[in-house]
Amino acid sequence: MIELLTPREVDEARVSGQFVAKTLAALRERVGPGTNLLEINDWAASMIQAAGARSCYVDYAPSFGRGPFGKVICTSVNDAVLHGLPHDYVLIDGDLLTLDFAASVNGWVTDSAISFVVGNSSAPEDRHMIETTEKALLAGIGAAQPGARIGDISHAIGSVLEAAQFQVNTQFGGHGVGSTMHQDPHIPNTGKPGRGYVLRPGLLLAIEPWVMDGTSKLVTDPDGWTLRSSNGRRTAHSEHTIAVTGSGPLVLTQLA
Ligand code: MF3
Ligand code: CO
To answer: Which pTM value belongs to this model?
Structure first.
């Protein structure tokens, strides 16, 4: 199902986007060498509670995981790229961490992810990988114009990722958002322009390029959730939720 929001509903969804943006910014600020992934989950859970928001993850039991997820945030470290289930692990300086967080506020879901290196010393290759997903995200957002198609977003993302010599996995990608987290349309992270669903004002999309290096194969952890690169190399992921409006894309999960 594809859900289209009225302009008034898009305004309501902005509140959700600001909550998700503030939560990720606060967590990023607080995380450092010595932080346990389980503490990050606890902090996120308190912020959800304080805001009167609702977690989209805790009860989520999709076919691609060993549901229910049971935590409120995904914490993916180094070779883990998607759906990292927080576990008892203490971060060290130089770890590459992805936080992926979605919540519902007043009935509207927004979804966002950031990758960053923990501590003060980051390897140039890690920075390059993270910057590539951020650049691909911006390109994808730029293509999300009313009247354009899903394939235009996919093509914009894929062009950036492929120019940086990363292989793209299309098992997981972006998606529609609205009153629930995962909706149609699916947005592969590569594709042909001019194809697919035509973007209309009121459509909410989570756009989420992610990359591995030298493989496009994922392996699932024994925890049944965490997806890692098959070659053990580091990975990165960047995600925003946008609203397609008559005057172009509006990034809901960017701090205003
Ligand atoms: N928010 C993730 C996404 O970007 C999905 C996480 S599903 C979970 O689509 F079950 F792992 F929480
Ligand atoms: Co998402």
So the answer is: 0.98
